[in-house]
Amino acid sequence: MKRTIIATVNNNSGVMNRITGLFARRQFNIESITVGMTENPEISRMTFVVNVDNERGLDQVIKQLNKQVDVLKVRDITDDSIIARELALIKVVAAPQHRGEISALAEPFRATVVDVGRESITLQVTGDQQKVEALIDLLKPYGIKELARTGITAFKRGAVKSDFETPKHSILN
Amino acid sequence: MGPETEEMQGRELKDENQEMTGASMLIQALARENVDVIFGYPGGANLTTYDEIYRTGMHHVLARHEQGAVHAAEGYARVSGNPGVCVVTSGPGATNVVTGIADAMIDSLPLVVITGQVATNAIGTDAFQEADVIGVTMPITKHNFQAREVEDLPRMIKEAFHIASTGRPGPVLIDLPKDIAAASGFFNYNQPVELPGYQPTVIPNKLQIKKLADAVSEADRPVVLTGAGVLHAHGSDELYDYITKQQLPVASTLLGLGAFPGTHELSLGMVGMHGTYTANMALHESDLLISIGARFDDRVTGALKHFAPNAKVAHIDIDPAEIGKNIETQIPVVGDAKEALRMLNEYNGTPGEFSEWKQQLQAWQEEYPLWYHEEKDFLKPQHLMEMIYEETKGEAVVTTDVGQHQMWAAQYYKFDRPDCWVTSGGLGTMGFGFPAAIGAQFAAPDRQVVAVLGDAGFQMTAQEMSILQELNLPVKIILVNNASLGMVRQWQELFYEQRYSNSVFPIQPDFVKMAEAYNIKGWKIENPGDMQEVLREALAHSGPVLMDCRVEKEENVYPMIAPGKGHHEMEGIKP
Ligand SMILES: Cc1ncc(C[n+]2csc(CCOP(=O)(O)OP(=O)(O)O)c2C)c(N)n1
Ligand SMILES: [Mg+2]
Q1: I need a labelling partner for B19 at 20 to 30 A (CA). Which of A100, A124, B59, B523 fits?
Q2: CATH number for A23
Q3: Does some domain include residue A43?
Q4: The Thiamine pyrophosphate enzyme TPP-binding domain covers which part of the protein (chain B) (predicted)?
Q5: Cα–Cα distance, B178 to B26 (Å, whole number)
């Protein structure tokens, strides 16, 4: 199953290394990791999309992350009401006669044309994973020359409390 | 004579908030952490630190290889309960302690390792003796730091000791660049440790304790599995009260030996690959398995698919990540083993009724005790262990290396005390046993320390005999000499159709002469009839000794769970 996990971590050098090393070492299957600064420059926020076989696998990912001294808080937000977004840049083969068609396809996705070449155009789209994937599927028949995706970054919808106030996965007690 | 203690008094504590060098901060901080000995080796990148050691008279033990230093620090940590401190230089000095750090990590021993590093402006340039020690040790330390500003150093050292010694203990490394050691700044050690990302749960949840206690009342066939966590938590007394009050049978992991007295009638002995038949069958047939400070290592569980098929599992561990990692757990208890046991002892539940179960266990014990064939012409290693047990009255600190002799020591030395046993369990590090004995002797200067070693493993760190010679440290080396990599030979016999690839020594050094080269008294024992007398004389000798005990070469360790098999499929359970 696919789960979305967020973590706040100390913005120290090497933290990313610690986390990716941990995932590799424990054979956790990671689909994407994003990281960036938070409102507090000393703290970064990471969003992971992980593939786990079962609850126990998920439990291990969260507990092993929690064990890192530089990891402040970890939370699985998959089942919460969340805003999850990723950005994708898609370079599509586009002969001049197809450009209009492609732009029309892109419109309902609010994708924008950010670059035009002789035989291709580049679209930028943001949204949740399904939306991004749906657009990619529609564009495939034209021929995708290059694709770059940022991976998901996410947080909880406009609750008063911060994402971490009521951890679902406390350490068992 | 044990290690000198007066020397350490030479340390002068400087006042807080003085300006001093990074190296001076380090030594001042170590003194404030009550470090009474450090094990190490100097080199280019830590000369400033060594200069400070020289000037302050800090008690330092010079190993002859950094691996010796780090294993000595581990032995010290295991016996004293305090972090062992190891100081080495950059590059090769640091990579030489990697094995010991990994060993301490997997066996949860508190270490603070200070590695020298090239100057900050040279980091990343492949400078002379530069190695990415932070990168190398990231997965094998509980945490690691690189000092980038001299003012950060006191905080880092304080955090390092805190992290190493609290929660689930483990090794912490500080990488100290040469220019930071030489730079000066203000030393302030009176800051509180603030680590929001590191808050171990010490006190367990009451509800979980109640659940566990109720499960015991309801169980018919309960068994307790104790691990090193009980020892790290200093919870042996609480364990004793709990077990004797509830009348629960106890099995122990290799590393947990001594947490509960091995000679007690409720003790079933060791579990796992070379555990007793009864301990393994007890787990297999149990309906309630209570693991306290043990982590269900594969050498303990055997094949997971056969593990304790009928048991409800309760698991007390200070590390939540261990709970449910290998074995599905119905009653998780996160917390310190001592605290959990204290709470269990306070809880007044209905006592359980296990008389039928205990009869069964006793029947197994009588039917399937540990066994070996006695012989007149060969010294049996198992018999040697029995003699060591007798001659030391079960009171020695026993360290071992890794292999057959380690298993025989675990089986036949009946550990009755919680502070008698130093062995490399999780990593199975050959070369550990001898330097660990040196560290143990520093932690317990007045106790008999016996290093039970294989003839192969001893050769991996034998150079540390220099320390025995230099300090007249009375460690007693007992070589269980089967002229082979015995454990490897055993597996080749059993699983590779007796193709003894590189496991039998065609020649061996003269170990007695080796010892004599270091001014250590040595004996070679070829006739089994001589063993007891030599042992008695050697143990009574005031200085270091080495006994080269020629044992039966083809002896195998039994009983045994073959790889891929379950607890109920032990082999070699009867003569
Ligand atoms: C550093 C290291 N290398 C290899 C091994 C694999 N190994 C495990 S036991 C063993 C044989 C040890 O021989 P010896 O020290 O003579 O002990 P014995 O088994 O004969 O008692 C070996 C090679 C190991 N555990 N550690
Ligand atoms: Mg041997």
Answers
A1: B59
A2: 3.30.70.260
A3: yes
A4: 401-549
A5: 13
Provide the pLDDT for residue B565. 97
The answer to whether B143 contacts A72, with C-beta atoms less than 8 Å apart, is no
CA distance B398 to chain A (A): 32
Is residue A169, in this structure, part of any structural domain at all? no
Looking at the structure of chain A, the number of domains it has is 2
ipTM above 0.95, yes or no: no
Based on the residue annotation, tell me whether B128 is a catalytic residue of this protein. Answer: yes
B26 within 8 A of B46, measured Cβ to Cβ: no
Residues of chain B with pLDDT under 50: 1-10
- Residue A107 located in a structural domain: yes
What residues flank ion ligand 2 with Cβ within 5 A? B 454-456, 482, 486
| CB within 8 Å of B431: residues ≥ 6 apart | B67, B71, B99, B401, B457, B460, B461
Radius of gyration of chain B (CA): 24
Domain boundaries, chain B: 18-187, 206-367, 381-550
Fold for domain B206-367? Rossmann fold (3.40.50)
Structural domain of residue A52, as residue ranges?
2-76
pTM of the model: 0.95
Quote the pLDDT of residue A169: 43
B22 neighbors B176 (Cβ within 8 angstroms): yes
CA distance B432 to B430: 5
Instruction: Note whether residue A168 is domain-resident.
Output: no
User: Which band of pLDDT confidence, cut at 50, 70 and 90, is reported for residue A159?
Assistant: low
Instruction: Give the CATH fold of the B18-187 domain.
Output: Rossmann fold (3.40.50)
The nearest CA of chain B is from the CA of A72 a distance in Å of: 4
Q: pLDDT tens, B409-457?
A: 999 999 999 999 999 999 999 999 999 999 999 999 999 999 999 999 9
